[in-house]
């Protein structure tokens, strides 16, 4: 066994030497070195890019001839996601000329309105509203009594008519979900010079038609009714 193993080792050693000579003759060692792929170079750190500068421009829209003679509106720039949007600056309302009724004068106007309501009788639904600044200046929104709206007015938005003593009619938007008068109420209030403290009597003579009476806070009453 030892002799056989020595013979195998000698034969194996001989083959290895022959293979080595063949590799040297074919330059396989150099070829294997050439095939080794060098490791990639370490990337350079990312360069910080400079922020892009966006030029802001305000575009002046051509005005129609209808408003050409009016002073130009004042705008300020509002930047939203790098887009400049001109926005009209609303002028503050001058509230210095507001006239506020005293509690006593307001109570007297309501008392007279209740007397008028009694004189008009129970044939038609009636309610009284004491005017506030939000009703006659600024917002021009008139909230109506919720119970009255649920009992007597339609449950959908629509148009109601207000009639004054000269039989002039005013169309006003009624918002059922908000129980109040919106568009058109301003025109009515301004046309009739309503003031803070005036007591207004609304008499529903048809489904969406009111006869309206004003009790002035300054003392005049049915002579100035509507």
UniProtKB/TrEMBL annotation:
Keywords from UniProt, A to Z, are: DNA-binding, Nucleus, Transcription, Transcription regulation
PROSITE patterns in alphabetical order = B3
One GO CC annotation: nucleus
Matches recorded under SUPFAM superfamilies? DNA-binding pseudobarrel domain
Domain TF-B3 intervals: 127-218
Annotated GO molecular function terms are: DNA binding
Segments carrying the region annotation (Disordered) are 1-20
Q: Which InterPro entries match?
A: B3_DNA-bd, DNA-bd_pseudobarrel_sf, REM16-like
Q: Which PANTHER family match?
A: B3 DOMAIN-CONTAINING PROTEIN OS03G0184500, B3 DOMAIN-CONTAINING PROTEIN OS11G0197600-RELATED
Instruction: Output this protein's name.
Output: TF-B3 domain-containing protein
């Amino acid at each position: 066994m030892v002799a056989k193993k020595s013979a195998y080792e000698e034969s194996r050693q001989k083959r290895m030497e022959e293979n080595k000579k063949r590799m040297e003759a074919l330059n396989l060692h150099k070829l294997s070195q050439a095939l080794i792929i060098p490791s990639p170079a370490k990337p350079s750190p990312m360069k910080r890019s400079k922020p892009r500068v966006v030029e802001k421009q305000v575009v002046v829209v051509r005005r129609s001839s209808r408003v050409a003679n009016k002073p130009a509106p004042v705008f300020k720039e509002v930047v939203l996601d790098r887009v400049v949007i001109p926005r009209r600056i609303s002028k503050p309302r001058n509230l210095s000329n507001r006239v506020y009724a005293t509690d006593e004068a307001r109570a007297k106007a309501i008392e007279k309105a209740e007397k008028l309501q009694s004189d008009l009788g129970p044939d038609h639904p009636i309610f009284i509203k004491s005017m506030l600044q939000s009703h006659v200046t600024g917002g021009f929104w008139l909230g109506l009594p919720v119970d009255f709206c649920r009992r007597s007015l339609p449950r959908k938005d629509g148009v109601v008519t207000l009639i004054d003593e000269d039989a002039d009619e005013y169309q006003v938007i009624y918002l059922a979900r908000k129980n109040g008068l919106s568009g058109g109420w301003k025109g009515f209030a301004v046309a009739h010079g309503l003031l803070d403290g005036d007591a207004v009597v609304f008499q529903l003579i048809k489904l969406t038609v009111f006869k309206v009476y004003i009790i002035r806070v300054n003392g005049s009453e049915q002579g100035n009714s509507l």
